[in-house]
Amino acid sequence: MSSSERADLGRALCVITGASRGFGRTTAIEMSRLVKPGSVLVLVARSADDLRSLQAELAESDAGKAGLLVKCVVADLAQMEGPESVVSASKEVFSEDLDHIILVNNAASLGDVSRFAKSFTNMAEVDSYLSFNVSSSLCLTASILQAFPQRPGLQRTVINVTSLCALKPFCSWVLYCTGKAAREMMFRVLAEEEPDLRVLNYSPGPLDTDMQLVARSRTGDPSLRKTFSDMFTGGRLLTCEASCVKLMKLLLEDTYTSGAHVDVFDL
Amino acid sequence: MSSSERADLGRALCVITGASRGFGRTTAIEMSRLVKPGSVLVLVARSADDLRSLQAELAESDAGKAGLLVKCVVADLAQMEGPESVVSASKEVFSEDLDHIILVNNAASLGDVSRFAKSFTNMAEVDSYLSFNVSSSLCLTASILQAFPQRPGLQRTVINVTSLCALKPFCSWVLYCTGKAAREMMFRVLAEEEPDLRVLNYSPGPLDTDMQLVARSRTGDPSLRKTFSDMFTGGRLLTCEASCVKLMKLLLEDTYTSGAHVDVFDL
After folding, report:
1. Which stretch is the leader sequence (chains A, B) (predicted)?
2. Which of A17, A130, B63, B121 could disulfide-link to B130, CB 3.0 to 4.6 Å?
């Protein structure tokens, strides 16, 4: 631990979307270990079963036994009611003695990576992708910031789980690249507008998740598909844990430039 | 004219969105002067009156008298039927002796620049913005590429009218920055995927248009509003004509890297 690093994330309210699987699930577990007693996790996902199982696991953990409150919100963020139900649940569990609000915008979908840009003639498909991956993330973030306004003694941190795809075009990944570029710019604007806020665009790297399985089996571009496949067979995918530990270190050090894109491989 | 520059844009089918006003209107006029006889312009906008007036002006021009065909498509690109009606109209006027398809994705809206990101809690508002500014542009481009596939002797060029806002965050411009970043990435992916295609992300600079009037009067961030105001009073806005001439030069030279962001001030 560096001398400037804080020891914990405070008495925090952590809202994590896409918390039932992959990187979101690992983030929930890692955060539960770094928050002070009296903290609350609000876990959001579409799958009730997966959320309950994570909730049960957390209840058995040291943090759970020490009284960590875990609230599950089964919601579809592509629907108008999604962000609203997350905010309602967060307000319910909030208490005035919390000193840190952490929102992790992790939920995302890959889109159909088997097809090339010229095949996307259906507006409803693109609209629906952007609604889930971009609009809901802006509206949830805005709603959380309004629900928990700036006040002395309260730190507010917003994390966007981004990707190299926000910066670099990848063949047959038009929806994913477009959505990630949009989202990252959105959070860069937010960082400019709200100097009291800490905004982090964290790119977790190629993770050994279900999404990567789809990437290496379904990617339309043969060369990119082979790259993903080679990363898998060559053992070059990161575990969610390894990447998440680096994210936690960033949060504890708290020295990143607000709004910056920070890649796991830069750390 | 440099020695490598072509003298004209060929016998072209030019599809221009947002053609009734501002940069789109100027692009229609400039292109009409640079295409060969027998070419066709398909002009798309929501306002029938403004389109008819441009059509009348073009009919009186030298190009019009020489037989340039101008087809108006009154369409709302935010609606599913918008891109479809543009493609139908383009197919109607296409003839086999055309040797260049040029699609100018110019239509865009500013979004509400009087408010900051944290105020965007309404998903329908954000969805609608992204549908018009991002989805429609992808779906129209995809549909045009499918309608006019690659064949020997046919050049295909897709232009995206982009902005500095695609690269740099501006306070109180969250929708515009997000939409432009999304769109630019989309066209970068397209350029990677379709090596036969010429894709240009052209940033026309701060133009003396109705959009700039809104920018300097409505921008929520006082410092940015002053910047726009100072650019206007200091005479530092570009005319659409001056910027469009540079775009035409890029197209005639045809040496830009496909997918690249080219700013008017780089030229």
Report:
1. none
2. A130
How buried is residue A256: exposed, middle or buried, by Cβ count under 10 Å (0-12/13-18/19+)? middle
Cβ–Cβ under 8 Å, residues B28 and B157: no
Q: Which two tokens stand for residue A166?
A: 């926000």
Residues 10-39 of chain B whose Cβ lies under 8 A from any Cβ of chain A: none
pLDDT at A5: 85
B contact residues 51-90, partner A, Cβ 8 Å cutoff:
80, 83
Between the CA atoms of A150, A154, A155 and A156, what dihedral angle is there, to the nearest 10 degrees? -50
DSSP H helix total and E strand total for chain B: 10, 7
User: Dihedral of the CA atoms A54, A202, B258, A109 (nearest 10)?
Assistant: 10
Q: Does any CB of chain A come closer than 8 Å to the CB of residue B134?
A: yes
- Domain B12-266 carries which CATH code? 3.40.50.720
Who's near B40: CB < 8 A, 6+ residues apart?
Answer: B12, B13, B14, B68, B69, B70, B71, B93, B94, B98
What ipTM did this prediction achieve?
0.97
CB contact under 8 A, B118 and A190: yes
What's chain A's length in residues?
A: 267
Residue type, B49: D
Q: What are the tokens at A54? A: 């994570």
- Each domain of chain A, given as residue ranges in start order, spans 12-260
Q: Residue A1: which pLDDT band, with cuts at 50, 70 and 90?
A: very low
Query: Least CA distance to A168: which residue of chain B?
Result: B185
Residue length of chain B: 267
- Per the listing, tokens 């109607």 go with B92
Query: Does the A12-260 domain belong in CATH 3.40.50.720?
Result: yes
Is the separation of the CB atoms in B14 and B104 below 8 Å?
Answer: yes
Going residue by residue through chain B, which has 267 residues, state the pLDDT in tens, using 9 for 90 and above. Answer: 455 789 999 999 999 999 999 999 999 999 999 999 999 999 999 999 999 999 999 999 999 999 999 999 999 999 989 999 999 999 999 999 999 999 999 999 999 999 999 999 999 999 999 999 999 999 999 999 999 999 999 999 999 999 999 999 999 999 999 999 999 999 999 999 999 999 999 999 999 999 999 999 999 999 999 999 999 999 999 999 999 999 999 999 999 999 999 999 999
The DSSP bridge partners found for residue B161 are: B202
